[in-house]
């Protein structure tokens, strides 16, 4: 079967599954999630055997170490996947919630009720745990899922989806609630992005290249996730010890993730006191420093920052540092270079705190805290399907409700217009 | 200036305007809306003179009557536009509303706050009143607007936007909150659809062709509006007099709009009693009838329906009619042909009412009422920017909140992760 036929068939099946799944009870979905978790554990050997095939193929193709690490499965990782599903089972079911409603003057009762999106397409890279995560969150929120993982993980993903699909069916879920695109042909992604008839939303998860491809080629609505050029601005009124602690955490605690700081902005009047110890701490921690001319005067390790640095998500132990004349210049810089993910100010000035939170256009705007908190679990959402950097539908950390829509249920007694 | 340069310049200006407009007070925005209403009235002569140029050009190009009617302005229509703006001024400002929030275990205070989308692109056809509507609703919700109206209305729209922009500036709004694409080059639409750097969302308003073009070519997120293949299902338990009243209203009260019924589904056991008077009433009202074989037996005027009929939005005095074996077949038919706009059941059976509302996947699902109520004003939203037929972001009638996003404001005391 060519991939066009495969996609069409999987789209049709997903649509049928979604229609049935929309009315399945929370109890039945939760039982299925537990059954899938059990099945992952009892099929660990088969999944690991498939993963070995992926790992061998990857080594033959000179795939870099960090990617190999993300691809590799072991018993502990499969246990973690199963545990994740059990946690999703314990979350409240978002479906059926009455969001608002009331009686109109003509007697019509209108209720706005939360419903699933329908069919969710996930396009992602080499991490097989995304397969389980996405399938679990979509099932819980009543959506059928079509998964397209990276070709490096095709054997692992095929084995995992087989386990999930079998366990779901045995737990009385509709057939085809979770499907994997079997072909590794790259053109299949482009074809998937045009399946408006069958897919309600596509969520890409992965590097900037993948996300750009999806955003620029999809005719299906997309939730853009990911890129974070996050700033921390240290105001002149800041508690400088607090500022140093927050900035260090924002950069160093996990530099590869999207909520890590990429640029540190420092008020000119705080620079003399703040920068020397701060830069030394970063330097000691192995962070490469790139700064404006003023910053360079404060530490010998600071290389000159280029124009491109201000717009770069390093996702690494690299930091750009700029001394600014004050809040105004900080706001201008952020408006120009922010990817609207997470931005922070450290300040003791009430007016500046208020102004920063109101004027900065980003999903998460912090006062006196690390940008690293931008995360579904930290926000109390109980789960995370990704972090949206667009403004439509979902913004910031996305929990289960990001995978839902709503409909109006209108109850009348013969009203006409 | 070529249109690429024009678009880029207007995009940059809109982005600057949006940043300022996001923090303008409700009182100031309302004053500006009143000032714009006043200015439309006091510039009636200039707007009508521009409209005469459009009308003359249109007549020279053999443009059909209904389109000419939509294009034509007179004093009453300009008064109605101004009145619409005053009504928008009286609506509550959605911006700044705290949607949810609370304190996390680590002491972080997280608030989810409603904010504008930013820059809204509107692409529409020949009705100059959309220019005023869109500008007013976007201004109220704190968004900068880039308008692209139909080329037939270019003189009218240019005059109207000039009046709006001047009045807004005099009322201390940021410059460039409302801009019109001046070129009538069709390629400008395609270029606008790729302006991801400057436009946060594009809303198309118009016929199926325009909407399809926008959905299939835009890399900017789109809110799809419009197409309605709406059904009414008459159950065997229905009050048949009520059913006849509702079905007649749903088809005949305004056939050209998207919430009008296109297909009537009738329970086989109700057909003998229900169909003859119903079909006769439609026939008397000049409605062309296209039916399944069973329907044809009930009235001489019923022509055979083809497969294509079930999927067609007539937007006219044409109705397709099908006799179905019961609720199950009705649900199947609707799942297959519905555009997910508005669907209705007429029934006295509690279980069937519940099942229809829960299982039908559409923005608005009615029991015992006409689909014609799918409308922002009828739903009590106070305004309408269009009716969304997608599930992402907004669904069904869209009021001011459909033009908003949110952000998380996080207030800490030095928390790190």
Automatic annotation (TrEMBL), chains A, B:
InterPro entries: Ald_DH/histidinol_DH, Ald_DH_C, Ald_DH_N, Aldehyde_DH_dom, G-glutamylP_reductase_CS, Glu-5-SA_DH, GPR_dom. Signal peptide: none annotated. GO terms for cellular component: cytoplasm. Its main location: cytoplasm. GO terms for biological process: L-proline biosynthetic process. Residues 6-285 form the Aldehyde dehydrogenase domain. Its EC number is 1.2.1.41. It catalyses: L-glutamate 5-semialdehyde + phosphate + NADP(+) = L-glutamyl 5-phosphate + NADPH + H(+). It is an enzyme of class 1 (oxidoreductase). Pathway: Amino-acid biosynthesis; L-proline biosynthesis; L-glutamate 5-semialdehyde from L-glutamate: step 2/2. Catalyzes the NADPH-dependent reduction of L-glutamate 5-phosphate into L-glutamate 5-semialdehyde and phosphate. The product spontaneously undergoes cyclization to form 1-pyrroline-5-carboxylate. This is Gamma-glutamyl phosphate reductase. The lineage of its organism: Bacteria, Bacillati, Bacillota, Negativicutes, Acetonemataceae.
